Amino acid sequence: MKLLGRKSDDSEGSRDDGRAEPAADNHHSADHVQSDDTPAGRRATTAPKGRPTPKRSEASRRRGPVAPAPMTTAEARRRRKELGGPKLTRAEKKEQRAERRTIMSERRERMMAGEAAYLLPRDQGPVRRYVRDVVDSRRNILGLFMPSALGLVFVMLAVPSVQVQQLLSPAMLVLVVVMVIDGFILGRRVNRLADEKFPDNTESGWKLGFYAASRASQLRRMRAPRPQVERGAAVV
After folding, report:
1. What pTM was computed for the model?
2. Euclidean distance between CA atoms 27 and 149, whole angstroms
3. CA nearest 170: which of 160, 156, 181, 158?
């Protein structure tokens, strides 16, 4: 048996349910919008890079395929030959070697002649050139160090006598002391002359003195660059 108020209640509940459904949908959409505003949603977006992102096909075409690593030494050698270009004949290799030797000999000759563009860093500058001229214009006791030392060593090896070795050992010590004194005097003289000619010189006296002593200790014909002044010439 149906009651009179029951039907109206059911209809009202159904109408209430119908009105509540949109509210639930609105709540769901609000939750969805709120989830988009979360930090996780912001992390999903990236800042613009200032240039368009290349397509996958363009990126693969630009890089090209990557060759696998060589498995043996012979394969690695073959790859190096292929990357090096076409193989040269024996005559072409000989011509290249001759050309390199010619270029090297020309550079060395210009360096020995004292051209500034071909000098080593230790020999560059007007101060170093002046020091070389001062050293080459005088007779240095340091120039006798190499032949004297070689002569003493030869005598010690050729005459393995105790008496001779006892005499040569003090002689070697005296020779070293004389060379050190001569190098010290030469270094002071070179620094004084260089300061007089180049008042704005910034090189340390120790470097110039050592440079002069090392050049003076070499034989004249073995000095590089080649001496540009004669012995006894006035250097100004």
Report:
1. 0.58
2. 103
3. 156
Q: Measure the CA–CA gap between 228 and 97, rounded to whole angstroms.
A: 32
DSSP 8-state secondary structure symbol assigned to residue 217? T
Residues with Cβ within 8 Å of residue 149, at least 6 apart in sequence = 172, 175
In tens, the pLDDT along 97-118 reads 999 999 999 999 999 998 989 9
Residues 6+ apart with CB under 8 A from 123: 129, 132, 225
- The DSSP call for residue 3 is -
- Tell me the domain boundaries of the chain: 90-119, 123-222
CA separation for the pair 21, 10 (Å, rounded): 16
Q: Which two tokens stand for residue 181?
A: 């004194």
Query: Which residue reads 């120039």 in tokens?
Result: 143
Per the document, the length of the chain is: 236
Question: What angle in degrees, to the nearest 10, is found between the helix axes of 162-197 and 145-158?
Answer: 170
